[in-house]
Amino acid sequence: MEEAQIPPAPGLGRWCAQQVMEHLILTYKLTTDSVRHQLKTGRVPRNRRNLLEFLLRVQTIGLGYMPEGVPSIRAFRPGGFTPEDGPAIAARFLAVAEEMDGLLVAARRKFGIQACGEHPFFGVMRVDEWRRYHAVHARHHATQLRNAIRYAKTQKPVSEGTATSIGTAARAGD
């Protein structure tokens, strides 16, 4: 088993390095799907933000702060996965990030500074807000990723049979 799949210390409810990366990939795909939909329809989404969405936006996008310990919504929790080594995970992450970036560039050209997609917590967002959100979100998980890798380096190698159970355990926790 690779370091990326070794789960963090038991009982902490945290993710292994691959699960952190899978979560980031899922959030990038959310943005990609939302922006692609807006590019297809050609319409700017209406600003239907409620007070909670407004406050979350100010905290995250405006102030650049994401609190620790807030669980991810189910759709963005990494479920079962095929264990991969670091370079393979990085390649998938980079491919999804490049696809998202290309769509954000296209959205900027088409919509200018108007909203180009909708986030489940923050409501409708402009290209600059999507970029700021992903920067803050990635920084939020960078420490978690470093800690998971640091912990994995202290562990003894685990048999291949355990790798399959990691994905199953993550799915059972949903």
What is the strand and helix layout of this fold?
Layout: H1 17-41, H2 51-62, H3 86-111, E1 117-119, E2 123-125, H4 127-154, H5 160-172
Antiparallel strand pairs: 1-2
Distinctive features:
174 residues, mainly alpha, two-stranded antiparallel sheet, globular
What do you see in this structure?
The radius of gyration is 17 Å and the shape is globular. The protein is mainly alpha-helical and 174 residues long. It has helices at 17-41, 51-62, 86-111, 127-154, 160-172, and strands spanning 117-119, 123-125. Helix 1 runs parallel beside helix 3 (86-111) and helix 1 runs antiparallel to helix 4 (127-154). It has one domain. The longest helix is centred in the last third of the chain and has 28 residues, at 127-154.
Question: Could you give a quick summary of the protein structure above?
Answer:
The chain is mainly alpha-helical and 174 residues long. It has five helices and two strands, in the order αααββαα.
